[in-house]
Design brief:
Strand content: 25-35%
Largest sheet: 4 strands, antiparallel
Number of strands: 4
Number of helices: 2
Low-confidence stretches: 5-22
Length: 122
């Protein structure tokens, strides 16, 4: 009797875990990802404005402040969407942020392709 109850409990827990994974939003979608994209838009615009004027991308986001961007715009932290990681690569760059939803998700913008690529893990 106890064994049957234990097996049932384990089966229910496994079904819940698999169901939670299935119901999770695809990385890069949902309101939390959208918050990161909205916060990144002025940073991307500032990076492009900097490049247009200086013919190269800055070495760090702090170089955009205060002429191209407010300092607060470079410090993303809403409690579930965290920080920007900026990496210049000569004539291009990547800008990334992390957000927590049902999983931990990372989204990275590639200035060459002008596209976001997101992945997540539990």
């Amino acid at each position: 009797m106890i064994l049957r109850a234990l097996v049932g409990l384990v089966a229910a827990a496994a079904a819940f875990a698999f169901g939670s994974c299935y119901l999770a939003e695809k990385p890069g979608t949902g309101s939390r990802a959208a918050t990161g994209y909205r916060a990144a838009a002025p940073v991307i615009a500032a990076l492009e404005a900097f490049r247009d004027q200086h013919r190269h991308y800055p070495g760090a986001l702090q170089e955009l402040v205060p002429r191209y961007l407010d300092a607060a715009a470079t410090n993303l932290d809403t409690g579930y969407v965290f920080g920007f990681t900026y990496e210049p690569h000569g004539r291009s760059y990547t800008l990334a942020f992390t957000y927590h939803a049902a999983a931990i998700n990372d989204c990275s913008y590639n200035s060459k392709t002008k596209k976001w690529d997101c992945s997540g893990y539990f």
